[in-house]
Amino acid sequence: MKSALASLLLMSFSSLAGDLMVHDAWIRAMPPTSRVVPLYLTLHNGGDKELVLSSIASPRGEIALHQTVQEGEMMKMLPVDSIRIPAHGMVKLEPQGLHAMMSDFNAGVPEQGEEVSLQLTLADGETLQAKARVTQFGGKGQDSANADQGMHDHSMHH
């Protein structure tokens, strides 16, 4: 009886923890005078239903979700209210696509090598804690040539 109860509690805890995983979270290292810095990560939904990321928060500053779109010859960043992660799918927040921007820093611009705490909130209120490393060239599997292609200059954004 006790082991059945323990199993039930563990299963309940697992379902409350949710199906969202965060991989390769990183913040581009920027000069200390920057007003904003880009944040990238990969979201993996291992569950059977779509998940919706509604926000990312950090004690280091404000974070807004964005998408880069091309309008004619111009690339523009547009704010987005949420990001949908399909069932059993992945969504990458990456240069030249969906991404997040951190601004209004509480303790200065995050520095190279630093780890920044993040809290991701889903539309249903569920939260997930993650950390993003501040680096010039990105997370796993990203080389400097690819990172340079995706460089964003957000110095005049917001």
TrEMBL record:
Q: Which InterPro entries match?
A: LpqE-like, Lxx211020-like, PCuAC_sf
Q: Where is this region: Disordered?
A: 137-158
The UniProt transmembrane annotation reads: none
Highest taxon of source? Bacteria
Question: Per UniProt, which keywords does this protein have?
Answer: Signal
Q: Hey, what's the signal peptide range on this chain?
A: 1-17
Record has Signal as a keyword: yes
Write down the SUPFAM superfamilies for this protein, in alphabetical order: DR1885-like metal-binding protein
Q: Which PANTHER family match?
A: BLR7088 PROTEIN (PTHR36302), COPPER CHAPERONE PCU(A)C (PTHR36302:SF1)
Q: Give the protein name, as stated in the record.
A: Copper chaperone PCu(A)C
Source organism (scientific name)? Shewanella cyperi
